[in-house]
Write a structure and sequence with these properties.
two-stranded antiparallel ribbon; 8 strands; 18 helices; 397 residues; ABC transporter involved in vitamin B12 uptake, BtuC; two-stranded antiparallel sheet; 7% strand
C-alpha cells in the first residue's frame, strides 16, 4: 500500500514537492520495519518484565554478523549460498544461546544493576568484534557482502527455500527491479524489500503478540507488577525471566539478520554499539512501553523526523524544500545582527536532526509518559483493536 501511495503523491503535480518533504521514503520504511522489530523485542523483555536490557544490541549485531559472514563463506559448515530464510532462523537460535549465557548471570541482579551488567556484556562483545580482523579486511572496519574468493556474492531471498519461483530478493541494489511479477506487476528493489521484509516482521510481531497473550505472557506481566508476589504464589521467576530473555533475543537476532540482508553490510557501530540499544529505548518511550506495537510506531516517528530534518541528499526533507521554494531575496534577508535567512537555515536545520529529536524526547518524557500508543489506549479505554471491534459491533446493532 505505502509504496503505491508514496509514488502517486510524490509524482502528482499539486502535492509532489510537499509529499517528498513530509513522507518518509520507501527505503526508510524498510529500515523502520527491521529496526522496529528489534525495538519490539526490546520492549518484550523491558516493557513486559520491567528489566531494562541496555545491552540488547548484542543480539541484533549477532544476527547481522552471522548473515554477512555466512555470505562471505566464513562460517564453518555453512555454505555461502545458504538460503536467507534459514539464516534468519540460525541468527535467532544463535541469539538465544547468547541470551541464555548472558541471562544466567544477569538475572541474578535486578534494577539498574541488571541494566549495567547487560551493557557490560554488550560492550565486551562490541570491542572484541571491532578489533577482530577475521570479520573484516582490517580491524575496526565493518564487513560487507563480497562472497567467497572466486564466487559472486549471493542474494538474500525471502520466500520458500529452494523454490526459486516463490522467492524474492531484498537489498540495496541500485537499478535492480522485478519486472512482470506474477505476469502483471512491476516493483523496484526498494518496493520488493518493503513487502518482503514487512511480511517477515508481521509474522514475528504476531508471534510476539501470541506469546504476550498466553499464560507465559501473563506471568511476565505479573513479574513486572510485583515479582515477589509472583514468586510467592509458586512461579519460578528466574526461569520465566530467562525464557523471556531468550525469546526476546531470538527476535532481535532475526531483526539484525534482516538489517544485514537489506544493507548487505554491517559494522560494529551500527549493530553492536550500546547506542543501538539506546535507539530501541527511544523508540519504546516514544511509542509506549509495554505495548509491543508502540516501539514500531516510535521508530517510524524517529525516522520520519530525522529524514524531515536531514541534510540535502538524504531524502526529501525540509532543508532542500526551503532552498528550492524560497526566493533569493528572501534567503538574503537579514534577520538579526547580520544573520540572513539562508545562514539561519544552514545553521539551525542542516544536520541537526538529533538535536531536535533530543528535545522531542524530553517533551515526550514530560508530557506523554505513556508514549503515542499508550496514550491512545488510555484515551480509548483499551487496545485500539478491541475498541474498534467493540464500536463496529455496536454499529451493527
Amino acid at each position: 500500500m505505502y509504496p503505491g501511495l508514496y509514488h502517486v503523491l510524490t509524482t502528482s503535480g499539486f502535492l509532489g514537492a510537499e509529499a517528498v518533504t513530509l513522507l518518509p521514503r520507501v527505503e526508510t520504511m524498510v529500515a523502520v520495519f527491521y529496526f522496529g522489530l528489534f525495538a519490539a523485542s526490546f520492549d518484550f523483555i523491558s516493557g513486559y518484565t520491567g528489566y531494562l536490557s541496555f545491552g540488547h544490541a548484542v543480539f541484533y549485531g549477532t544476527g547481522a554478523y552471522l548473515v554477512v559472514l555466512a555470505a562471505n563463506g566464513k562460517v564453518p559448515f555453512l555454505p555461502f549460498d545458504t538460503p536467507f530464510m534459514l539464516l534468519l532462523l540460525l541468527a535467532g537460535v544463535l541469539a538465544i544461546v547468547l541470551a541464555v549465557v548472558i541471562g544466567l548471570v544477569s538475572f541474578r541482579l535486578s534494577g539498574v544493576y541488571f541494566a549495567m551488567i547487560t551493557l557490560g556484556f554488550a560492550q565486551v562483545i562490541y570491542v572484541f568484534v571491532r578489533d577482530w580482523s577475521f570479520v573484516s579486511s582490517s580491524p575496526r572496519d565493518g564487513a560487507a557482502v563480497v562472497g567467497p574468493d572466486g564466487a559472486a556474492p549471493p542474494t538474500f531471498d525471502i520466500g520458500v527455500p529452494f523454490v526459486d519461483s516463490l522467492n524474492l530478493a531484498i537489498g540495496q541494489l541500485a537499478g535492480d527491479s522485478v519486472e512482470g511479477l506474477f505476469g502483471v506487476l512491476s516493483f523496484s528493489t526498494a518496493e520488493v524489500s518493503y513487502y518482503m521484509v514487512g511480511l517477515v516482521v508481521l509474522v514475528c510481531y504476531l508471534a510476539l503478540q501470541r506469546i504476550i497473550h498466553s499464560p507465559f505472557g501473563r506471568v511476565m506481566i505479573a513479574i513486572r507488577e510485583n515479582e515477589e508476589r509472583a514468586r510467592a504464589v509458586g512461579y519460578d521467576t528466574f526461569r520465566y525471566k530467562l525464557a523471556a530473555f531468550a525469546v526476546s533475543g531470538f527476535f532481535a537476532g532475526v531483526a539484525g539478520a534482516l538489517f544485514a540482508g537489506f544493507r548487505r553490510s554491517v559494522a560494529p557501530d551500527n549493530s553492536l554499539f550500546f547506542l543501538v540499544s539506546g535507539d530501541a529505548l527511544l523508540a519504546s518511550i516514544i511509542g509506549g512501553f509495554g505495548t509491543l506495537a508502540g516501539p514500531i510506531f516510535g521508530r517510524l516517528f524517529d525516522e520520519s523526523v530525522r529524514e524531515f530534518l536531514s541534510k540535502e541528499g538524504s531524502g526529501g526533507g525540509l532543508l532542500p524544500y526551503l532552498r528550492e521554494h524560497l526566493s533569493q531575496g528572501t534567503l538574503d534577508t537579514v534577520l538579526f545582527n547580520g544573520l540572513t535567512v539562508q545562514e539561519a537555515i544552514e545553521t539551525f536545520l542542516n544536520g541537526h536532526a538529533s538535536l531536535y529529536l533530543g528535545l522531542l524526547f524530553v517533551l515526550f518524557v514530560l508530557f506523554v509518559p505513556n508514549g503515542l500508543l499508550g496514550t491512545l489506549r488510555d484515551r480509548l479505554g483499551g487496545t485500539v483493536a478491541s475498541q474498534v471491534s467493540e464500536r463496529l459491533s455496536r454499529l451493527r446493532r
